[in-house]
Design goal:
The complex is a heterohexamer, with 3 copies of chain A and 3 copies of chain B. Chain A is of the alpha+beta class. In chain A, 30% of the residues lie in helices and 43% in strands. Chain B starts with a helix and ends with a helix. Chain B has a single domain, classed as Up-down Bundle (Na+/H+ antiporter like fold). The chains are: A alpha+beta, B mainly alpha. β2 of chain D pairs antiparallel with β2 of chain E. The complex binds adenosine monophosphate (3 copies) and sodium ion (3 copies). One adenosine monophosphate sits at the interface of chains E and A.
């Protein structure tokens, strides 16, 4: 039962390659991605109803150490600035790592 | 306009399904084509039209007129973004103007297909090279839009970098990938080449899927677009009057330019209508996908709404029969 | 029952695929049609049957007999909910009784299509207006079910409000939207109208999709329904004996009533079977979608299980050949 | 790095229009929706295998201020009472908002 | 507003029947499943792009009491050992349960 | 090899779409067939090929030669895993060797279908029982792979238990379910039986879906496989040289063995090619799904990469025309 940081990121689905690269740079041990997310935020409604992924978001969950979480926030910030979205950090305990 | 054409067009199943979808969205029915099926329908249509165009190209080959048509098409897709960018920059801001410029320099494959369905119900022939023209018009417009923006907004500004890492130059790498290797451009071009390579033998093998089902699938896709386009209408207020005006005035203007070109090139009526519709239509699939990455600060509620909720319905409901009336009158 | 019909029916690919799906669920195979494809198959089938019915209606027009059939259909879809509601209210509670009432007043489009496939293998003709009858039977039953519940449960009770905001009246607005603009009702009706409007020309354009592929797609859809219906069987225990008994007894009873009506109206065998199957079948697509919103306290494990896991298999395995045997014998 | 409330809601997918309206009334700055959720709860199993969305859930994530979270719970409660589901509130920090 | 444990599990989608059985044994009051999850972890990349569910993950959320959460971690551990994945536990308050 | 066959094969639309997909992945285009559509395409192809094989079986019946072919097929699917397991155990470890053994004992339905498309463009006939042979080869290989592993790794070791609860025996229950009731095996076998039961009448009803569309859908599926297989290539380094070598050497070796068998059994050219391709191909759909559960410690990046990224492209690009050249020369 180790304490970990839960990092959650929501941003546009088209930014996936960039986001994965950022997570890799931050050295996280793993991540999970859920696509086909709809949403609403500062940049208006994203209905995920397009014939392309233009208006589609993705949800990413990362469980990692506090230092890795720190690095993730740094790596992710420019992506959120360019494409919009949120990044939340919370605490959890993990039964595997 | 010859009113018979308008009526003919209105009795076309694809258009009626577009209107049915629009009606569903208006009465807030819960009818929808669930994701990712619309994406798959759109891949199918590109696959089918590309293959068909390629096979027809394998018959006709690349003659002088064909090359002239292709060149004109590319030229239009480069010239349109330039004038649009400078026309709208003051009103919409540089990023949005660049995205709209690319949108209108490029084409709408579905509008093109609806025009083909229109020609087929009238038995008017057209050439496979028109599909090649369509394939060639998507990427240049994207590149033009991005370059215009980059050349007019200097370093030091918070200019949009096409690349995550690029410091102040243009990330050509990513720009070319996003414009030329864009999924829909790639599939259309690839299917065209495969159709051209395999010719009639390939055609026989895939015809039941690519040809027989085409109009029916187009109906389903237009049903979805009717729903989606109508939902987007609510964003029109945010887009503003200049954007709305442009979205409705540009199509006929570009259409007339294309007709003049078609006349000069001596095209037949079918090909003339298709060149006209390429010029008059605006992209809401390939270009937004590329702009989202290359110019992320441009607001898709502006450029997608213009192309999808205004220009597209205008072209398929009024534009196609209108342009065809003019061509009929002019060519006779 | 003429056993030849039972065998004929059992050698029909759609039915066999239903049984294959049931078998997969029974042996706990991981076979499944992944979502949202079943939804898309169902949209396709409504689109196809609606269009076809519309085209045939454009040939026959709306004669006196046709209008009489449509009226009888609507009448049945209003009368059935009334008696069902009062019959079951004591045993299932008012909310569940209302949902079951709407379910059995309405129809199952897939059962109808399976009956059509059955008629087609026997070369028995039927009229496009039967599709119109089907389209007309979905909404009234929903409205009837909700109204019965509202009229019998007084204000002050924790009665289900169809609307989020409505205080104590009926939210007619939402009720009508959920019943008449329900996605599947809307698509079926819209396709019917488009088919009627475009007639043979439209038919030629979409026939390869809507007609040629119909039976094959029905097989895939029934494969999925076989899996889903069998999985639902485990919920039967919770539904209780009265519900199970009703789900198996109501179809033949309603069928006989419809046959009497068909005889009085002088229908041919094909149309008679279709009217019978409309009466005998119960909705598990349109009605549950509407009930979920209008009567959320009703338990879908009861009304969906009854319609999907009991009445539906009964009708397609035994009902169709049974009813047709009776009609053959009676009409001759 | 601002503290925020994470509000998570699971309810039937058909209630989406009502839920979005409730979130709007509560004045939240954004939300993210994941559809096609299966589940199990007091009202039995929802297998998301129907040909309609009748047995389908959706998962909604809202990052907002404590006051907004308060308003969300009030607005969402009648929906959960009618249609079933859960609403969880937890703490996180956000690198945007 | 009751305190609850949020248990999150990510593992391969093919293990769904086993996981549900484990949750049932642990006696949880409910769960929510999101399928079609991509991911990366000790066992490499799972792209969810296969024609089977072999490389697909699922995300499961359970809100329950601390004792139930304890039982879930015990029941889930052998599944994670066999098939890979993570299990996170965090705190939340629930407006239903 | 007769170079004309290679060229013929290269001008086949399905293969060209595979290469197009590979190209898309190489240039990092965002082209993709969104999930779950690839799964649905694969279900469609199994449904179609199974039905067709069943109908043809209903014509030919089960003669002596047919039974001999089926027996040989099953024998190969049992013998191959044995030698593969012992050959690779030292290099890849027991779990991975078992998974690779099952993978190569089993078959690739898509390779088989591509071979059928190849035969059809040449007008070479083949028998429906070859589809039955394919259906019979999937499960035994899975069972063999798991049993080999269980029999060679003793209790007390951290041996993979097929079942969650089984203590130290083999969970036969789950093993048989995962191998024989596996979704794709179940659908293929079920469609075969339904096709055999309904014969020509059933065939007429579903032919537009199962036959006419077959090649076109195969193109779309191969487009997806081209993308996915190429992406998997990056995992090759992790798989290691022995795995790579085996993935490229095994197909021609198994092919030659199958040709000898085919000659002994006196098969015609079409059936001979199909038996050869069954032996030469490796499973990346049914077997991985079963191995994931039965041998979860085996690394799919090894066995799926071998089958999908190496053996599959080898067979469809080079193998089919190569094997057919040899058969042509040998049989003449
Ligand atoms: N407060 C929020 N809570 C949950 N999701 C959010 C929130 N704000 C933004 N998002 C998600 O991030 C996407 C992009 O946000 P934005 O750039 O603010 O438009 C939205 O479409 C939502 O899916
Ligand atoms: N304790 C729980 N943990 C996670 N999800 C739950 C829980 N209880 C209910 N749900 C979700 O909410 C839906 C409706 O819940 P209910 O109304 O309790 O049947 C279920 O189908 C689940 O998806
Ligand atoms: N640190 C992590 N954060 C989020 N998800 C993870 C993490 N580690 C593993 N996963 C998920 O669990 C799956 C299996 O993990 P593994 O067994 O470590 O490969 C991965 O494909 C991810 O979806
Ligand atoms: Na244009
Ligand atoms: Na009925
Ligand atoms: Na093999």
């Amino acid at each position: 039962m180790d304490p970990v940081k839960r990092v959650e990121i929501v941003t546009v689905a088209v930014a996936k390659p960039r986001l994965l690269e950022a997570l890799e740079r931050a050295g996280v041990p793993g991540y999970t991605i859920l696509r086909a997310a709809e949403g609403y935020g500062d940049r208006g409604r994203r209905m995920a109803d397009e014939v392309t992924a233009v208006f589609e978001n993705m949800y990413v969950l990362v469980a990692c150490s506090p230092e890795q979480a720190e690095r993730v926030t740094v790596a992710v910030r420019p992506i959120l600035e360019r494409f919009g979205g949120i990044c939340l950090i919370s605490d959890a305990t993990s039964i595997k790592h | 306009m010859n009113p018979a054409y308008l009526l003919d067009n209105l009795l076309n199943p694809p258009l009626l399904f577009f209107l049915l979808g629009a009606g569903a969205a208006l009465v807030r029915s819960d009818l929808e084509i669930p994701q990712p099926f619309p994406k798959i329908l759109s891949l199918y249509l590109l696959f089918a039209i590309g293959f068909k165009g390629g096979v027809e190209l394998s018959h006709s080959g690349l003659g002088g007129q064909t090359l002239a048509v292709l060149l004109s098409a590319v030229a239009m897709s480069l010239v349109v973004p330039c004038y649009v960018f400078f026309l709208l920059r003051g009103r919409l801001g540089a990023e949005n103007a660049a995205a709209v410029a690319a949108t209108y320099g490029s084409i709408s494959a579905v509008t093109f297909m609806t025009a083909i369905a229109f020609l087929e119900t009238k038995g008017v022939p057209y050439g496979g090279h028109m599909v090649a023209a369509m394939a060639l018009m998507e990427s240049p417009a994207i590149v033009a839009g991005v370059l215009l923006l980059r050349m007019t907004t200097r370093a030091g500004s918070a200019a949009p970098l096409p690349a995550g890492g690029a410091t102040n130059g243009i990330a050509w790498n990513e720009l070319l990938r996003d414009s030329f290797f864009n999924g829909s451009v790639f599939l259309l071009t690839g299917s065209l080449l495969i159709g051209a390579a395999t010719g009639d033998r390939g055609w026989e093998a895939v015809r039941p899927l690519t040809d027989d089902l085409f109009t029916g699938v187009l109906c389903l896709f237009l049903l979805d677009l009717g729903i989606v386009a109508t939902r987007r209408l609510e964003a029109i207020r945010k887009a503003g009057l200049p954007a709305v005006a442009f979205a409705l005035v540009a199509p006929p203007v570009h259409a007339v330019v294309a007709m003049v070109l078609a006349r000069l090139l001596g095209l037949d009526r079918g090909d003339a209508l298709l060149l006209t519709i390429l010029a008059a239509s605006a992209s809401y699939i390939a270009v937004p996908a590329a702009m989202r990455l290359a110019v992320p600060r441009a607001n898709p509620s502006i450029y997608v709404t213009m192309a999808l909720a205004l220009t597209f319905p205008f072209n398929i409901v009024v534009g196609i029969p209108l342009y065809y009336s003019i061509i009929q009158w002019w060519w006779s």
